[in-house]
Amino acid sequence: MPTYDYQCTQCKLQFEIRQSINAPTPDCPECRSIAEKVILSAPAMHGNMARGRDLAMRSLQPKSDQTHGHAPGCGCGHH
């Protein structure tokens, strides 16, 4: 079940609720007003998904930012 972040429009308390996507908007746990504002955030990535994202981001780096694997002084002109 997903976790959603809310902010109360009355007292501005930020809180998170674990609920179904079809669940009604929760009341603020502090002042009991309806929390109407949903704070959008990127989902957390764990385990293999995070590793895959890291590899994908590295693959997008320009080739000049990556080392070419030659030893210093090899004469290739890339140092």
From TrEMBL:
Disordered: annotated segments: 51-79
Superkingdom as given in the UniProt entry: Bacteria
Domain (Putative regulatory protein FmdB zinc ribbon) ranges: 1-40
NCBIfam families named among the record's database cross-references: CxxC_CxxC_SSSS
InterPro entries, alphabetized: Regulatory_FmdB_Zinc_ribbon (IPR013429)
Name of the protein described by the UniProt record: Putative regulatory protein, FmdB family
